[in-house]
Structures are given as C-alpha cells and as structure tokens.
C-alpha cells in the first residue's frame, strides 16, 4: 500500500470501531423506547457502512468472497423494510445480531492486515 492507501486504511480501521459503538447506541435507543433518536442515527450508520464497503473495494481487501458485502446489503434492505413497516424491534435485532457481528469480523480482518 502506498502512503495515501495506508492513511485511508487506518482511518477506516478506526472508523469501524466508532461505527460499532454507534450501532450499539442505536440499538439501545430503540430497545429503551427512544425510537425517534435511534431512527435518526440510521442514515449515519448507512453512510458509515457504505464508507467501509468503499474502502474494502478501493484497497482490494480480501474477504470471504463477496459473501460479507452481499450479507451487509441484504441486512440493510431488511432494515429499510423495517423502517417502512415501523418495525423498530426488527431493526434493532438486525443491527445487534447481524450487522454488529459483520462489523466485528471486518475489524478483525483490518487488525490482521495492519
């Protein structure tokens, strides 16, 4: 990796940790009945996930095939369905049991690379 790629990589590595914290906060807001605050954070989480996916693509980081990215996209579609249906419990569950574990896997992959 060149200097610029290393900088992008390090920024993304730090960002994944903050993203996981933000997702967990969103889950806590929704589970505690503060749906409005939790829902307000979803676009930021979506942007964060998109950023990580773009970094993975840009730096050609090896994952388990395209499986991880496809799984993330599937989960994000489920979240959109949950928003449209007002199913905030579903949204919190997807974040907690699907997206956070994927982000944790990506965090480990990023740590192994550095």
From TrEMBL:
Tell me which domain of life the UniProt entry assigns to the organism this sequence originates from.
Answer: Bacteria
Please name one Pfam family that this protein belongs to. DUF8042
Q: Which residues form the DUF8042 domain?
A: 3-112
Q: How is this protein named in the record?
A: DUF8042 domain-containing protein
Q: State the organism named in the record.
A: Clostridium gasigenes
């Amino acid at each position: 990796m060149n200097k610029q790629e290393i900088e992008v990589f390090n920024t993304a590595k730090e960002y994944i940790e903050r993203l996981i914290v933000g997702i967990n906060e969103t889950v806590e807001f929704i589970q505690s009945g503060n749906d409005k605050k939790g829902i307000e954070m979803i676009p930021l989480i979506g942007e964060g996930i998109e950023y990580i996916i773009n970094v993975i693509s840009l730096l050609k980081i090896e994952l388990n095939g395209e499986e991880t990215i496809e799984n993330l996209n599937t989960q994000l579609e489920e979240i959109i369905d949950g928003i449209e249906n007002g199913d905030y419990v579903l949204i919190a569950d997807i974040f907690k049991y699907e997206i956070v574990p994927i982000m944790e896997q990506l965090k480990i992959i990023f740590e192994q690379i550095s």
